[in-house]
Amino acid sequence: MSERPSHPPSLGASVVAGPVGIELTRAQIDRIVRQASGAGNMAVLLSGLQGARGTIQDNQRLLNDPRMSRSLLQGLVVLSGFPADGSEIGVIDLAHRIGLGASTTYRYVATLLSVGLLERDPGTRRYRLSQ
Could you give the number of structural domains in the chain? Predict the structure, then answer.
């Protein structure tokens, strides 16, 4: 049986102690998303939502498909209803645009805002995709 050395490992040696966690700020996450997408904002990432664009009625077939997540699809429709040019929109206008009730739209918007996918102008109380 050999003894373990009592001195620390030399430079270049690696010691694995277990899992490592990394915490990122919103700015760091945004930078990573931009670099990964090659783009400047969430609007470009959402451009892949062509299947969910339009209104809830346009997506009724998918909403009725038991293999699909209805709430996720509705959230994607809400996201796709925001102007791709980064301009702001109010909840009522967004609800009319996508064919969803105002209170339901507000809940989705509040959720998306809380996770950083949307921004709110405190002066106008209108929302846009995070920049």
Answer: 1
Task: Residue 68: give its domain's CATH number.
Answer: 1.10.10.10
Residue 19 lies in a domain: no
Residue whose entry in the numeric block shows the structure tokens 């996720």? 72
Among 45, 123, 125, which Cα is nearest to 90's? Answer: 125
Reported as a single tens digit per residue, the pLDDT across 1-32 is: 555 555 555 666 566 677 777 887 776 776 67
pTM of structure: 0.59
Q: Which domain holds residue 93?
A: 26-129
The H-assigned helical ranges of the chain are 26-37, 42-45, 60-63, 70-80, 91-98, 102-114
